[in-house]
Backbone:
């Protein structure tokens, strides 16, 4: 019977050696894992071996003293094996250690149809085998970073005293418009006679369901899957993606901004510290300069720029001869990615909080500013990508909120429960939403959302 | 502008005083929160005040030196307020401190329709206002424990080196039978011409999608929402619930058992340590003896009992005159809750791992034992509840697995991708599933799943 906490792993050996623990030298170990490569030199050979516990492989050396030498010679990519061997430190070499094999035991073979072969395989091909691609370096690194980043999110919020609220996926309400929501049913009947007895869809945001909990626990966050049935195929849209949505009570847009900056810096730092090998790989192979970009995210101050100022800046730029694809800059427009990137990359050269948007381009729940034309919304724009997350102070005034619901032709009755948060001990509160998948793209330099999701679901595309 | 990390909270004051930090005495604090009760004695009055940061309230004392004394006199349940006051230690009193109010500022009023009134309100009524009930003591405690328990799950697995895999909610595959799955669509068209171009449903388990990741990262876990469209209304079934499903490679059923025990003990201990006030409340108000029950879960050894032994025990019990509702004990039957509880409570009086079930009552993917009639499945049974989680070693043999799929009349083609995990470097592996909501019921003594979920979704019942 294996004891989970004491079996030897490739990671343990690396960590012991990095910690100058020389006890590892000469230690007999038993490790399970998978073969990556085999260089057979005749009477001696070298296996690259990954046991899933870290990004790096261990080098195994076999010779004709190795039990099952004949199997080791034939070892091939993808085989599951259990090895017994002696750790040998190799100071000055590329790897800090190798393992001299006493025994090689084949546990699970691969047949000739194994789709991952040594030759490089493109991301597009790998998307057709989402259940195999985590074994490829890039995806191995991606999914470990995804896991560590997800944990960083929980650790940050729990450390700050936030309560994790698991808002529902199934909803008979709808945050940002039914057109983008998937419907749910059990039979091909009318909703009225189906399972729930009314129309039900998949959530497009947990915010409305989270707000009442912020008005109880003060600081809360959601973190879970979210859905949009957008009929578009881009590299940045998925039908199912993960969102984190903090909501804080007794807070203004400026508290929201402070939280966003603090949050982003903390979780990016956490990944840089805890996924060193993976991040080095992305820096070397995927996006040159990635580590510099992220280190700046973590250390430098972010700017706050109002929408009004942004329009002035863009107007000035056009006057001076800058050409945007969409060149008609006027107040009230929704800024395009090119505009956001101009502001971030050409003007401020640092992350920018863009705030106070025209109310007509933003959601009904955003706090209406005293100027009567803008709302207290905020988008965080970062170099190279543009918008990475957005939020707002919420309209706390019941009458103003009802008025806005009426203006937009929404069904007030559906929102009665939500309006209760303004009737019963309401207070200024704020929040934001951040897409885990897009953040992961930013952190790793991967440019297609289909690659950061484990099993991507997009328009017309779903496997298994 | 509020600084998130430095504002004073009710929790901070309690913690400082518990840590014998006398600096709190005489300190001027500003705190936002909500009124629970108001005892006005004329020239002086006492408010019970909760700021959401901890279960306990703070006692506020106002008198006619308090700015807005007239408002404080009229303070009522549910109002949002910002108070300024001086902390005063009260050794020997019920509360270790009170706050003498300098100023009382009403931020958000409540109107007369506020549904939470001082008189006790039953759980059934509170289910009709899921957005308000977190303000009631029981639910306040429940949802904080839910958050802490969820974090304990992440912390346990991440600490053990597991990779968090966010398996998809939308699936064109199906783990345990399409009859229980919700369908997903965008229009009332045939699936072939709808959004994904094929039938898609909501996941009933992440296991099949997680297994390929265990065969890459060795140890992985899912943690997310899961769906069952069962048309039954019980106190233990919800249509949407949260599951955690670890999957470990190079592992047998006994490794699975070790992990289960280690996992349960760790997360229960975490809640006992980090939610002391809430757990004391549940022990005092909901389930007498709860803390004893949980402390035993954490400290005592669990038994392993085979299904064969269980049948012998039950047969013997019937012979000796014990009456079960379902009294015809025979090999091959699915044990009922009464049988499980007899074994756990009357025979062993400790948690029991029941293992090696008849293959015909278990899922296709469970490892077939050499006896030809049982599979290496395991259920963890606990006193007072019965089954709390279940798992198995997985069938690693491709041919046996295919044979089982054929026997059960399942569509092998749909599972080709899953079978790849046995073709390409497969190995013994195992896992289990644990329902967060049922575990939370066990931990808090709450007996209806509708109360542990934030916004419960059950047959014919969905709000917002």
Residues:
């Amino acid at each position: 019977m294996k004891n989970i906490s004491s079996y030897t792993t490739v990671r343990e050996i690396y960590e012991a050696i990095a910690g100058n623990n020389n006890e590892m030298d000469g230690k007999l170990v038993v490790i399970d894992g998978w073969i990556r490569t085999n260089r057979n030199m005749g009477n001696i050979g070298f296996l690259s071996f990954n046991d899933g516990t870290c990004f790096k492989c261990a080098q195994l050396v076999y010779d004709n003293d190795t039990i099952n030498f004949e199997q080791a010679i034939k070892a091939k990519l993808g085989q599951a094996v259990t090895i017994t061997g002696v750790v040998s430190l190799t100071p000055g070499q590329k790897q800090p250690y190798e393992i001299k094999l006493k025994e090689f035991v084949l546990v699970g073979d691969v047949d000739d149809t194994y789709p991952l072969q040594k030759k490089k395989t493109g991301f597009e091909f790998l998307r057709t085998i989402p259940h195999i691609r985590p074994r490829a370096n890039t995806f191995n690194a991606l999914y470990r970073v995804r896991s560590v980043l997800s944990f960083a999110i929980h650790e940050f919020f729990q450390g700050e005293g936030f309560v994790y609220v698991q808002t529902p996926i199934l909803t008979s309400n709808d945050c940002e418009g039914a057109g983008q929501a998937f419907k749910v049913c059990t039979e091909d009947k009318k909703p009225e006679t189906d399972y729930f007895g009314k129309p039900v869809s998949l959530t497009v945001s947990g915010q409305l369901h989270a707000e009442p909990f912020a008005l109880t626990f003060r600081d809360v966050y959601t973190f879970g899957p979210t859905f949009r049935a957008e009929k578009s195929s881009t590299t940045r849209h998925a039908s199912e993606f993960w969102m984190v949505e903090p909501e804080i009570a007794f807070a203004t847009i400026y508290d929201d901004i402070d939280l966003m900056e603090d949050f982003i810096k903390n979780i990016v730092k956490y990944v840089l510290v805890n996924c060193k090998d993976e991040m080095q790989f992305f820096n070397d192979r995927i996006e040159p300069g990635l580590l510099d970009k992220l280190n700046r995210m973590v250390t430098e101050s972010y700017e706050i720029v109002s929408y009004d100022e942004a329009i002035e800046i863009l107007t000035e730029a056009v006057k001076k001869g800058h050409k945007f694809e969409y060149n008609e800059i006027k107040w009230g427009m929704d800024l395009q990615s090119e505009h956001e990137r101009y502001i971030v990359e050409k003007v401020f050269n640092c992350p920018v909080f863009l705030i106070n948007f025209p109310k007509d381009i933003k959601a009904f729940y955003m706090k209406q500013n005293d100027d009567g034309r803008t709302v207290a919304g905020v988008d965080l724009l970062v170099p190279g990508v543009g918008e990475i997350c957005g939020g707002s102070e919420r309209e706390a005034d019941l009458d103003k909120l009802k008025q806005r619901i009426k203006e937009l032709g929404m069904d007030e009755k559906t929102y009665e429960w939500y309006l209760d948060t303004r009737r019963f001990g309401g207070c200024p509160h704020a929040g934001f939403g951040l897409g885990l998948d897009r953040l992961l793209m930013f952190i790793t330099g991967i440019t297609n959302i289909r690659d950061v999701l484990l099993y991507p679901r997009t328009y017309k595309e779903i496997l298994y």
User: Anything to note?
Assistant: Confidence is low (pLDDT under 50) at residues 1-6 of chain A. DSSP finds 14 helices and 18 strands in chain A. The two ends of chain A are 34 Å apart (CA to CA).
